[in-house]
Write a structure and sequence with these properties.
Elements (H helix, E strand, L loop, with lengths): L9 E12 L2 H12 L8 E8 L2 E13 L12 E8 L1 H10 L9 E3 L2 E7 L5 E7 L2 H4 L4
C-alpha cells in the first residue's frame, strides 16, 4: 500500500464540520433526539468506506463549539471545515510557495497531523492528514 507521503498532496474529502452554537450541549442533544446522532463530549464521528484505497475505513468529526470560541479565529465565520488531506508536509510547502496564509505549524497527534490556513476570503480551514486506524481501535 502506498504511503500518504508517496502521493500527490491534495484534499481527499471532508474530515470535519465545526460550527458555533449558543449552547453546544443542547445542540448535541437536539441532533441526538431528532436525527439519531450518537454524541459524546466532542460531538459525533461518522465513519465511511474510502474509495482510495478501496474499503479503508475513514472518519468525519461533527462538533458544535461555544458561540464565543476563538478556535475559528482569525476568521469571523460561525463555522470551520476540516479537510482530509494526504501528504500534509508537501501540501503546506506548496501552499506557502503559492502565497497562501499558513496560520500555524503542523501539529502531530496519534490520530494525525493538522495545520490551519486561510482561504481567499479569510475563512479558517483546518487541514488534517488522518491516521484512521487510531479510531478503528477506539470503542464506538
Amino acid at each position: 500500500m502506498a504511503n500518504s507521503s508517496d502521493q500527490d498532496p491534495k484534499v481527499t474529502g471532508i474530515g470535519g464540520v465545526f460550527f458555533k452554537s449558543q449552547d453546544p450541549a443542547k445542540a448535541k442533544a437536539w441532533y441526538e433526539v431528532h436525527l439519531g446522532f450518537a454524541t459524546d463530549a466532542y460531538g459525533t464521528m461518522f465513519s465511511f468506506l474510502s474509495t482510495e484505497p478501496p474499503h479503508n475505513k475513514g472518519y468525519l468529526q461533527w462538533s458544535p463549539f461555544k458561540a464565543d470560541t476563538t478556535y475559528f479565529a482569525p476568521s469571523t465565520e460561525p463555522y470551520m471545515i476540516n479537510y482530509r488531506v494526504n501528504n500534509l508536509e508537501q501540501l503546506v510547502t506548496r501552499l506557502r510557495e503559492q502565497g497562501v496564509t499558513i496560520l500555524d505549524e503542523i501539529a502531530t497527534y496519534d490520530y494525525g497531523k493538522f495545520v490551519h490556513i486561510l482561504d481567499l476570503e479569510n475563512r479558517k480551514i483546518e487541514l488534517w492528514e488522518p491516521i484512521d486506524e487510531t479510531f478503528d481501535q477506539s470503542p464506538e
